[in-house]
Amino acid sequence: MTGVSPSWIATRKAGMSRLEAFVPRAGSSYARLRNFDRGAGRHDDVSVLSPWIRHRLITEREVVAAVLAEHRLTDAEKFIQEICWRTYWKGWLERHPAVWADYRAEVNRLSANAVDLPDLGDRLESARNGETGIDCFDNWVEELTCTGYLHNHARMWFASIWIFTLNLPWQLGADFFLYHLIDGDPAANTLSWRWVAGLQTRGKVYLARPSNIDRFTEGRFPAVKGLVSNAVPPKASPLPVPVAPPGEADDDPIEGAGLLLTEEDLSPDFLTERGWRFASALAFQATRSRTPDGASSIVEAFVHGGLCDALARVKTHYSSEVVQVAEDTEGIVNWAKRQGLRCVVTSYIPVGATADVLAGLKKALNAENIGFYSPMRVWDRHAWSACESGFFKFWNKAGRHLAEESRSELLL
After folding, report:
1. Which member of 7, 77, 233, 276 lies 3.0 to 4.6 Å from 253 by CB, making a disulfide possible if both were Cys?
2. How buried is 243 (Cβ within 10 angstroms: 0-12 exposed, 13-18 middle, 19+ buried)?
3. Of 25-29, 166-170, 321-325, 408-412, where does mean pLDDT reach its minimum?
């Protein structure tokens, strides 16, 4: 698949350029053509902005504001809803953190069992290597592993075939995606796989059908054979009761603060707009913790590039002393001590691998008499309070309102 990999330039400038180029097609054209998967290097009917949005090299608010500057909400609603799906999934998982913990535990258990169960191990290896004999599936494996990206419709078909036709655990499929996808997001990825499996909307599975694949791939896979036509969801525990959304700490900015950048948010301007000033900045790369096997070289490179781009912007705009990339909590604490910081500030880190690996950071910093603060964006705080049930309830309660307000500068 040489020559068809997208140009993944992990900078804010590249993300904004891609956004500018796509905006004219975000209205009725997107609504009409968004489900067509034309193959690697031909995803012109969708924005392909997800790698930049996932790491907040550009923000949801900026994307929605740019689209609504050229389109009416009624014309661009499908695209804006897709942006809000990522927000919704993050908020839902924030309200149900046990779902993430259970998923990670199952990945570890199943990965260990695959070694001891030859049948599972062999079938898993065939799927991961794209050697199943199902042409469309094997093609998507090649595209994913070579480019770090798949069209959203292909992701749904892929997950359905993995779960129901290949009879493989959904958790290991989600783990495979998280390892390879540049836009791999703990919430959107985990919960989308659960949705296909019939675990998010209980009992309602998503089945990949040959006629649908044929139509929306424009005949690239005209006679897919062997797909199951009926399926039942895997067994699962009842959904946990939603917990309260995280609250915003009302902390006034203080002097002697250091900025900690993570891949969860690489646009720290909203912190300085709230009055924070940073004597030093450090980037933390958590991609080694995305899955038990880390992340692909494509993912590693994009995240590292995004972190370096964010550090360069911080240094240019805020005259901060910049330290490059740390890879463990001890490195963060040592940086804070060397710089004589009174506190470390980072954008709120949502449920996921980054939060897991930094779970003990606040305690470690406090032991050195260094504070730790993680302010939330207004966008997240407003959205997550409405993420108790389904997406369209969220959309009507909060999503539409966020979209309409994004035209202004009230949301940071």
Report:
1. 276
2. exposed
3. 408-412
